[in-house]
Amino acid sequence: MSERAVNAAPERMPLRVRLALHDLDAVTLLVLPAVIFVIALFVYPFVYGFVLSFQPKTGDWLTNYRKFFSDPFLYDTIGATFRLAIPATLINVLISVPVALRVRRLERRRVLTTILVVPITLGTVLIAQGLLIYLGPQGWFNRVMAIIGVGQVRLVHNYVGVMLSLIMSGFPFTFLLTLSYLTGIDPSLEQAASTLGAKARARFVHILLPLLAQGLAINLCLSFVQTFSVFPSAVLLGAPAGETRVISIAAYQAAYEQYNYSMASAVAMIMGFCQLAVVVLILAGRNFVYRGAVTGGKG
Amino acid sequence: MAIAARDFRELRLDGMSRNFGTVNALKGVTLNVRRGEFIALLGPSGCGKSTALNCLAGLLTLSGGSIWLDKTRIDRLAPEERGFGMVFQNYALFPHMSVRKNIGFGLNMQGRPKAEIERKVDEALAIVRLGDQGEKLPGQLSGGQQQRVAIARAIVIEPPLVLMDEPLSNLDAKLRLEMRAEIRRIHELIGSATIYVTHDQEEALSLADRIVVMRAGEVRQVGTPEDLYVRPAHADVAEFMGYRNQIRSRATKSGNLVNVSIGGVSLQGTPIENVSDGEVVAAVRPDDLKVAAGGPISATVESAQYHGHDFYCLGRTDEGIELYFRLSQKVKKGDAVRLAADADRVLVYSRAAP
């Protein structure tokens, strides 16, 4: 039986073998749940929202977008969001580098890392709550200021409050990411540089920074996307009708105050486009830096 | 190439020690290295040889003692202020820089003019025979080529002292032999002193002018390769230098020699340490234990490994003592042999000695 099959089609391999040669076998089926998940929870809502944004209640298909870009109350949210997201991202990523440089040499790295990670576990709302009380008119901070004679310093319900919250909740992420990229760099590279006469500053500029650049680019992307979609702290700690009226607030109001889902989808699409544009820009910049192994030879 | 910065007549390690917590990795190492000398630090893993090298490079601070270049104390200087070249075990080439940039890094740090850097990099590439590979990234080179780049990078700054930390341990056997000859050639060419860390006694014997045998953070013996090969000062040094047969025995004096009993028979040996208490270890190389028709020791072959020009055999005496020996003709398990050794090739050490 088997012999005859071989004789009949000598150069034809069984389907299973041919699929296996293209890395498709029974194990490949294990990605199916993930694929279904991505389609159901990301691709479908995205496509649905995209189509919905071109189906306004009244007017032609571009009405929502035309409305957004003609009303300063709406299009100013883009600027307001960028004004928060870009400085917050840069501060978080740039501060994470010197802190991580120092922390990787500590013996009790774990203790410090744990302390820095606590804000992640607390969540934005708790941080906002704490800041509101601590920095509020009756809070410790302003009482001390009053005693010193500085008077009231307003740090909440404005731009500063949101920025503080974004740094507190965002920094641990950027720090942990930078720390892991930094500890991944072979320490003997820095040692080699120092035996060749490079002082700390030169070692950082010539060795660590180029090897860290790709990690920092990823870090910038993740941190930016996270801060760009700021919502709770902008509402709780900011001035949601004024200077911290970010784009997610505009989308929220369209959806749940005006019940205009089509308009809300359009705002969400514009928001997504802004994020994508920045991420593409950063990743394109990555082509100018070294992207390879960060060890100095055979393990 | 000539040595530029910090040329010295003598490098002196004076009681150099280093602790890691409660562990004494280096216990008062004292050593003088002359200009242009090739020193091998030899010892098993964990003996402190790499710690010693890192202390010399300035990558580790000393817990005690001092390091001197002639009259200048250097152990408080940062690595970048010492101006020694170092070759790392994993090469530690900068992965984002071309071979030329890697080699030129040290000169660049010294702020040398561009033309001079280019010229010296060319020279260094020629020395390590990598003339046409300058524009590649380290990741595009083979292990042996990466090793050459690492050496070129260390010597191009014309250091008075080159430190090498097991530079050949990541290479395959054939390449290791080639690079061994290369390293010696380059050493003689540039005239720097070299301190070379290895756990391979063959490497140390073939490369070094003097070998420093270390164990448990201490220097056990310093000597020329011939000294160490022929007359190791202690039983553990002997074991490390290939005296595979270490027979615990009793000895009695007989003139300048001693008689050691191995199994039931008596063998003449040369006392190296004070063996007056009679409790001794007799050390014999497998090469020195010869098969002879009238030899005093009778043994049965347990195993024989073919090594090309001879057989490396394990035999057992009637009393159960294991003996390693070499034999030019073929033997098989169970064969009876008679073994003999010259009195000057049976080295007798005290068992009480540390």
Keywords:
A: mainly alpha; MetI-like fold; 2 domains; B: 354 residues; alpha+beta; 6-stranded mixed sheet; 9 helices
Structure description:
The complex is a heterodimer of chains A (299) and B (354). With 299 residues, chain A is an all-alpha fold. Chain A is 71% helix and 0% strand. Chain A folds into 2 domains: 10-51, no CATH class; 64-289, MetI-like (MetI-like fold, Orthogonal Bundle), CATH 1.10.3720.10. Chain A has helices spanning 2-8, 15-21, 32-52, 63-70, 72-103, 109-122, 124-135, 140-148, 159-183, 187-195, 200-228, 232-236, 247-256, 261-285. In chain A, helix 5 (72-103) crosses helix 13 (247-256) and helix 10 (187-195) runs antiparallel to helix 11 (200-228). Chain B has helices spanning 49-57, 79-82, 99-109, 114-127, 143-155, 173-190, 201-207, 225-230, 235-240, and strands at residues 10-20, 23-34, 38-42, 64-69, 72-73, 85-87, 161-165, 193-198, 210-215, 218-223, 245-254, 257-262, 265-271, 279-284, 290-291, 297-306, 311-317, 322-327, 336-340, 347-350. In chain B, helix 3 crosses helix 4 (114-127) and helix 4 (114-127) crosses helix 5 (143-155). The A-B interface holds A 186, 188-189, 191-199, 202, 206-207, 210-211, 290, 292-299 and B 57-59, 78-80, 82-86, 88, 90-96, 105-106, 109-110, 137-139, 143, 146, 150, 153-154, 157, 163, 170.
**Structural class determined from secondary elements of chain A:** mainly alpha
Estimated share of beta-strand residues of chain B: 35-45%
Determine the mean pLDDT of chain B: 89
Could you name the CATH topology of the largest domain in chain A? MetI-like fold
Question: Quick gist of this model?
Answer:
By secondary structure, chain A is mostly helical. In chain A, 71% of the residues lie in helices and 0% in strands.
List the helices and strands and how they pair.
The complex is a heterodimer of chains A (299) and B (354).
Chain A: H1 2-8, H2 15-21, H3 32-52, H4 63-70, H5 72-103, H6 109-122, H7 124-135, H8 140-148, H9 159-183, H10 187-195, H11 200-228, H12 232-236, H13 247-256, H14 261-285
Helix pairs in contact in A: 5-9, 5-11, 5-13, 6-9, 7-9, 9-11, 10-11, 11-14, 13-14
Chain B: E1 10-20, E2 23-34, E3 38-42, H1 49-57, E4 64-69, E5 72-73, H2 79-82, E6 85-87, H3 99-109, H4 114-127, H5 143-155, E7 161-165, H6 173-190, E8 193-198, H7 201-207, E9 210-215, E10 218-223, H8 225-230, H9 235-240, E11 245-254, E12 257-262, E13 265-271, E14 279-284, E15 290-291, E16 297-306, E17 311-317, E18 322-327, E19 336-340, E20 347-350
Parallel strand pairs in B: 3-8, 3-9, 6-7, 7-8, 13-20
Antiparallel strand pairs in B: 1-2, 1-4, 4-5, 9-10, 11-12, 11-14, 12-13, 14-20, 15-19, 16-17, 16-19, 17-18
Helix pairs in contact in B: 3-4, 3-5, 4-5, 5-6
